[in-house]
């Protein structure tokens, strides 16, 4: 959907819902996750370099999202789950 076109005819406000853990991920060490919907498993080591790269990726994606929303004339707010 073209949000820029939508925002020309309507007031559009985007609400970004974020858990604080997504932005402040901790080093977890060895983990084993299971996706309950597909039963797929992930085994790995969540170390400091992986966490740092993840945080950089989240910040970069947020920056791209904010720029896109601003260019489209769309207001936005970020709220946290707590």
Description of the molecule:
The protein is α+β, with helices and mostly antiparallel strands and 82 residues long. It has one domain (3-80). 43% of the residues lie in helices and 29% in strands. The protein has three helices and four strands. The longest helix has 24 residues, at 48-71. The chain is elongated, with a radius of gyration of 17 Å.
What is the element layout, followed by pairings?
Layout: H1 3-9, E1 13-18, H2 20-23, E2 29-34, E3 41-46, H3 48-71, E4 75-80
Parallel strand pairs: 1-4
Antiparallel strand pairs: 2-3
Within the largest sheet, what's the order of strands? 1-4
Number of strands: 4
Give the class from helix and strand content and strand pairing.
alpha+beta
Radius of gyration, in Å, reads 17 Å
Number of helices in the DSSP assignment: 3
Please state roughly what percent of the residues sit in beta strands, choosing from under 5%, 5-15%, 15-25%, 25-35%, 35-45% or over 45%.
25-35%
Number of domains: 1
The level of helicity is 40-55%
Q: Tell me about the biggest sheet?
A: 2 strands, parallel
Could you give the distance between the termini? 30 Å
Overall pLDDT level: 89
Any idea what the shape is?
elongated
Query: Which parts are unreliable, with pLDDT below 50 for 5 consecutive residues or more?
Result: none
Please write the string of helix (H) and strand (E) elements: HEHEEHE
List keywords for this structure.
two-stranded antiparallel ribbon; two-stranded parallel ribbon; 4 strands; 82 residues; 43% helix; single chain
């Amino acid at each position: 959907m073209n949000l820029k076109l939508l925002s020309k005819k309507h007031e559009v406000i985007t609400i970004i819902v974020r858990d604080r853990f997504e932005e402040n991920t901790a080093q977890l060490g060895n983990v084993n996750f299971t996706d309950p919907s597909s039963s797929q498993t992930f085994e790995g080591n969540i170390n400091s370099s992986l966490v740092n790269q993840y945080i950089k990726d989240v910040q970069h994606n947020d920056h791209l999202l904010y720029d896109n929303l601003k260019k489209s004339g769309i207001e936005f707010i970020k709220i946290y789950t707590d």
